C-alpha cells in the first residue's frame, strides 16, 4: 500500500525535474513555480506536510535552475503559519556560501528578484 500524498502542483514539478531539453528547462521550472504559486491562492488550507513539501520543491527547483544556468542556486523558503500572511525568504548559494537576499510577502515579487539574480549571474559568467 502506498501512503504518499499527491498535491496539485506535483505534476508540473516532476515535469521540471525530468526535463532534459535545455531549450525547455527554464519554462518547465517557471511552470512548476507557477503551479506552486497557484496552490497558495487556493481556498483549501495548506497543511504542515504540504508546506514542507513545497519548500523542498522550491529549493530543488532553485538547485536545478542553478545547475542549468551558470552555477547559481537560489532558493525560496516559505513559512506559512496558520492564519498568518505568507512570507517568502530568498537565499542565494554561491561558491559554497549561502547568502540571505530578502523576505517577500508575495510570490511575484520574490520570483522577480529570483529572475534578477539569475540574470546577474549569467552576466558575470
Distance between the termini: 48 Å
Radius of gyration: 15 Å
Shape: globular
Proportion of residues in helical segments = 40-55%
Give me the secondary-structure category: alpha+beta
Structure in words:
This protein is α+β, with helices and mostly antiparallel strands. It has four helices and three strands. The protein has a three-stranded antiparallel sheet with strand order 1-2-3. Helix 1 runs antiparallel to helix 2 and helix 2 (25-40) runs antiparallel to helix 3 (48-68). The chain is globular, with a radius of gyration of 15 Å. The mean pLDDT is 76.
Question: In a nutshell, what does this entry contain?
Answer:
The protein is 51% helix and 18% strand. The chain is of the alpha+beta class.
